[in-house]
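Tokens for chain A. Residues wanted.
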């Protein structure tokens, strides 16, 4: 069987803001992402994906997802890590796992201390401010590994969704011995959509969460050890999502 993948149409970093304003998303190549953060060594954090604990909150009973989580507040010149906290989404944004306070294991200190980690979060926060005005950005960082040890793995078991934030950044850290994992982007208030597969390491998909809905299709193994690693960063103005949030 022949499986066709469609690569994304990558743009230069200087065009990322205009892409989000015009169509709600933009994609940088791995080289573009490295340029965005002044070529800090992203590969220095990649090994930490081999040490992610299981996600114990999957309601579909799956054993295919591992993750860590951390929270920050970014300003124009600083990145402050917040005390470890549970991840929360309302049911209106996540019909499968919404309404739950999910306390995941924290991102390891050795990862957070890497210059590339800090450069990435600050660079993305700067882009958010250039689009919606200078302000503090409340960031949640999620390290994900979706594996195929028990067959199919589901990057987004909740289906096509919004995250209830302002912006979402999805970085492909690695993919090995899998097929699938196609990214799908849909207009939140329109008929148009795009589909493509992130395959180059450190490719960045940046989304305006108010304008588009997104999902990733299931993955299947093509050989032993198949998995897909991503870093998902969400940026929200005004504060973290809480159980009392109405937005």
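Reply:
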């Amino acid at each position: 069987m022949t499986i066709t993948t469609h690569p994304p149409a990558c743009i230069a970093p200087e065009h990322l803001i205009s892409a989000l304003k015009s169509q709600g998303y933009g994609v940088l190549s791995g080289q573009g992402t490295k340029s965005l953060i002044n070529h800090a060594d992203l590969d220095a954090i990649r090994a930490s994906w081999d040490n992610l604990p299981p996600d114990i909150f999957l309601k579909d009973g799956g054993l295919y997802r591992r993750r860590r989580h951390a929270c920050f507040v970014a300003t124009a010149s600083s990145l402050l890590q917040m005390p470890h906290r549970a991840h929360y989404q309302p049911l209106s944004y996540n019909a499968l796992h919404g309404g739950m306070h999910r306390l995941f294991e924290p991102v390891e200190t050795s990862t957070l201390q890497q210059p590339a980690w800090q450069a990435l979060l600050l660079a993305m926060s700067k882009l958010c401010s250039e689009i919606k005005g200078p302000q503090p950005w409340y960031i949640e960082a999620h390290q994900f590994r979706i594996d195929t040890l028990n067959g199919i793995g589901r990057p987004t078991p909740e289906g096509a969704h919004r995250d209830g934030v302002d912006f979402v950044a999805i970085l492909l850290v690695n993919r090995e011995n899998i097929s699938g994992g196609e990214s799908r982007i849909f207009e939140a208030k329109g008929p148009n959509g795009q589909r493509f597969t992130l395959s180059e390491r450190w490719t960045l998909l940046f989304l305006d969460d108010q304008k588009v809905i997104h999902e990733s299709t299931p993955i299947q193994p093509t050989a032993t050890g198949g998995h897909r690693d991503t870093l998902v960063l969400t940026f929200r103005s005004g504060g973290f999502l809480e159980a009392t949030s109405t937005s």
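The longest helix spans residues 115-132. The chain has four helices and 14 strands.
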